[in-house]
């Protein structure tokens, strides 16, 4: 297609640049959850460092009931449907549920054991995980043979 070697080279660089731009734009998609600006989670949601911190907090505080990475088991999953990208539950609702718990269920209130930033970090992790689950679901739809962990 491209006979001039300079153009050919640019083609490869161009594709690489597009991939880099897409990767950089990914967190913007993650931030599309819930109403931005009004719920205090903006400093955390979509930020890789917060997501990593949240992953560790989730492992220590939540995993034993909600299973690995919140994928559910004996307790509800937290990464699909109403909790997934574009789902009905806002960041604030997720925050409040974690902070206040669910009375008369095993779901305790974490508002004393964890600080507000820590709870937001967990929310950031769950939102990022939900995006990965959604991406894997899309990929599986396109290629049912795809060998995916998610
Ligand atoms: C001792 C087990 C246990 C632990 C630990 C636990 N949860 Fe839960 N969680 C539950 C149960 C049971 C429910 C379902 C409550 C109900 O019936 O409404 C629940 C519900 C929830 C919900 C609402 C889910 C829905 O579909 O309505 C969220 C969000 C949640 N938990 C987040 C967390 C997070 C984040 C942590 C860690 C900070 C955590 N939970 C720790 C048992 C637990």
Give a structural overview:
The chain is globular, with a radius of gyration of 19 Å. The protein has a single domain (31-142), classed as Orthogonal Bundle (Cytochrome Bc1 Complex, Chain D, domain 2), CATH 1.10.760. It is built from five helices and no strands. Helix content is 54%, strand content 0%. It is mainly alpha-helical and 150 residues long. Helix 2 crosses helix 5 and helix 4 packs across helix 5.
- Count all strands and give the number: 0
Tell me the Rg in angstroms. 19 Å
User: How much beta, percentage-wise?
Assistant: under 5%
Quaternary structure annotation: single chain
List keywords for this structure.
Cytochrome Bc1 Complex, Chain D, domain 2; binds heme C; 150 residues; globular
Provide a concise account of the structure shown.
The chain is mainly α.
List strands and helices in order, with pairings:
Layout: H1 5-30, H2 48-61, H3 63-66, H4 91-100, H5 116-142
Helix pairs in contact: 2-5, 4-5
Bound molecules: heme C.
Heme C (HEC) is lined by residues 61-62, 64-66, 75-76, 78, 94, 97-98, 102, 105-107, 110, 122.
């Amino acid at each position: 297609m491209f006979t001039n070697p300079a153009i050919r080279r640019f083609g490869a660089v161009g594709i690489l640049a597009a991939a880099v731009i897409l990767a950089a734009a990914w967190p913007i998609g993650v931030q599309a959850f819930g109403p931005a600006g009004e719920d205090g989670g903006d400093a955390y949601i979509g930020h890789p460092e917060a997501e990593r911190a949240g992953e560790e907090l989730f492992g220590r505080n939540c995993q034993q009931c909600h299973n690995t990475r919140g994928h559910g088991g004996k307790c509800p999953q937290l990464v699909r449907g109403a909790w997934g990208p574009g789902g009905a539950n806002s960041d604030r609702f997720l925050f409040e549920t974690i902070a206040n718990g669910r009375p008369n269920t095993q779901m305790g209130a974490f508002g004393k054991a964890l600080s507000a930033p820590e709870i937001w970090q967990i929310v950031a992790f769950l939102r990022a995980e939900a995006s990965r689950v959604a991406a894997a679901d899309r990929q599986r739809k396109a290629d049912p043979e795809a060998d995916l962990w998610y």
